[in-house]
Amino acid sequence: MGRGTLRIYLGAAPGVGKTYAMLAEGHRRTERGTDCVVAFVEHHGRPRTEVLLHGLEQVPRGRLEYRGAVFEEMDVDAVLRRAPVVALVDELAHTNVPGSRNAKRWQDVEELLAAGIDVVSTVNIQHLESLGDVVESITGVRQRETVPDEVVRRADQIELVDMSPQALRRRMAHGNIYAPDKVDAALSNYFRPGNLTALRELALLWVADRVDEYLNEYRSEHRVSAIWGSRERIVVGLTGGPEGRTLIRRAARLAEKGAGGEVMAVYIARSDGLTSASPKELAVQRTLVEDLGGTFHHVVGDDIPAALLDFARGVNATQIVLGSSRRKAWQYVFGPGVGATVARDSGPDLDVHIVTHEEVAKGRGLPVARGGRLGRARILWGWAVGLAGPVVLALGLNTAGLGLANDMLLFLAVTVAAALLGGLLPALASAAFGSLLLNYFYTPPLHRLTVADPKNIVAIAIFFGVGMSVASVVDLAARRTDQAARLRAESEILSFLAGNVLRGETSLEELLERVRETFAMESAALLERESDVAPWTCAGRAGFGPPLERPEDADVDMPVGDHMALALTGRVLPAADRRVLAAFAAQAAVVLERRRLQEEADQARALAEGNRIRTALLAAVSHDLRTPLAGIKAAVSSLRSDDVAWSEEDRAELLKGIEEGADRLDHLVGNLLDMSRLQTGTVTPLIREIDVDEVVPMALGGVPEDSVGLDVPETLPMVAVDPGLLERSVANLVENAVKYSPPGRRVLVAASAIADRVEVRVVDRGPGVPDEAKERIFEPFQRYGDAPRGAGVGLGLAVARGFAEAMGGTLTAEDTPGGGLTMVLSLCAAGPRPEPLPAGEFRTEPERHTI
Predict the structure, then answer these.
(1) What is the dihedral of CA 381, 383, 385, 386, to 10 degrees?
(2) Is the whole-model pTM more than 0.90?
């Protein structure tokens, strides 16, 4: 079964009649014999809409309970079981009640379409996701229910349901949309004439764009190349010259005269990269055309008139705006010019406007070949061969007498050698000089610059032509080689940038250093400012002496958006290098933005973690700290009461309760303070060498007697730790183990040496912890399983791990063989255990300082 079709009635505003039109369509299809059902329609108490529901089969709705109320939603399963040909579904942007099959109704519609059911639905223009901000700025109301634009764009049919603002307000006043008690508020707020007019314009423009997409798809599918003047599209041909601004403004005025006019500025660059256009001027013109509501396009083409016409026909343009030629009169010998050629080849369906400007006939430079493509040494050798070679050859041939044909071939060989070495100019010089020598020394009459035999004139002309041809081919090959090398270098650089974008590895400073090295500059800096009048600030720099005040002070500045620029000092870059520089500048802006987003994310993460800890701390204070306080308060109040004569045993029991509550408070507050020190990074351990068997027994003072067994050999190496932090860590581990150990089962504290580490293991026989929770139990305010609230605030293990890591150790959890949990505290050994000293001698410990 294929996918169903979707038809949408798009409303310009609430109340224009979308649901009415959908139900009317349902009646038409039913009358034609189509199996059509109402999957979900909300009439909102409008009598005319409710009447149209009669005569149509309605699928029972699903009922969902949420927060004590019962809501009705479309029952997707019921519609799928019914399997109609057409289903009517109102309010495509509706948000379903929590607990529904899908979060949004358009997702329900997608299921129906996937099942092969045709759907007719409705939606208002203000519910399109991309228009949310625009609608809010117009009406002052933020739409909470939205539908992605792509869902509506994929519809097979879209029909606009429209109504003039005056007619819609009359419908509102007559009570056909809202209840009478809501009419006045609606007319004075959302349904103001200005709001309705703006929403109507939004709907018309959106539908017009969709129609334009349909038209382009149709033209592409049917290969229609002729221009259909459905609306005015004006193409502006730019050369990069100063007249471009005049052309853009003129085109904008032409577009304003027609409804829905569109301006598209296009710059056509040669494929070999040779251009006389100013990058700065093109950037200014691009900004201008975008400010006027148009678009800018960059096209590559060697035949500029053909490329311009192909672009215009490709976008279905109706007019082309060109500037009068800047060439002088003598330059027309090279051809009629772009304007005349475009006007001649445009055909009857494309109008061409030639606009005059201040630069007309002021001259236009032709592309000039860059020097240095063959290398300075090679060019010098070419000039030497081209000028000295004919002289040396002439001196040698005066004595040999090989004949005119052989003499010309030898002179031609010298010209070819000059072309292979030095390119065009040395070869031309060699051909001209060789022709003169041939004519003077070897062509009758000898030693005169005249030629008696016309055949010799032809031979000399062929000789000169061959020399020029070879020289041109060599020069062209050199240009292509240079261009290939440049493109390869550019591709490597762009590949590097693309890789960094994907991996996110390069920092801003590293990227600027790469820019400085790539273009052999002295310094590189990324400058930015908040507004057009704000001062420039430096976001990052590399090299010595970068411009920090204004981009204009640099030798090269590349704008990035409106308030950012990449500034370089050292030399002026040629135009061809600015393409890669623009890529670097864009990447620098991306890296800067990524760094700031990362900083904001880190700050947000730190704030979130702090908020989580503060929230947990408040929860702990609200219960776990108040419980012992309440016990102490009750015991003290009982002892101070004169109404009861307490026996000595009762008084001792109450005092014991007070002492236990105070100890518990002291322990809780101590852990809270320790956790606070760890979170703020103020724990500074005082590391010194000490025996484990001196610290571990001291950590068992807070647990019941006979609840812990020790196995700490005296032969263990000393450990480099802070004794106080180690004692606190072991005490927390032992207390946690005793808390979860079953009655009658002792906790074992054992220590052993492994390589350069000393491990302290706290082993219990409690319920244990699953593998997926072994890391979570070390997080602050975590209590595993169904531990009661009185079991503490869940900081003991977090504090123990924090102290262990502060001393350079680790704390992990393992399963106890046979059941239970083993905490492994791994510490750094201080070195081999020292040999015992003879009686009466003492070992002095060097003084240590904590920095």
Answers:
(1) 160
(2) no
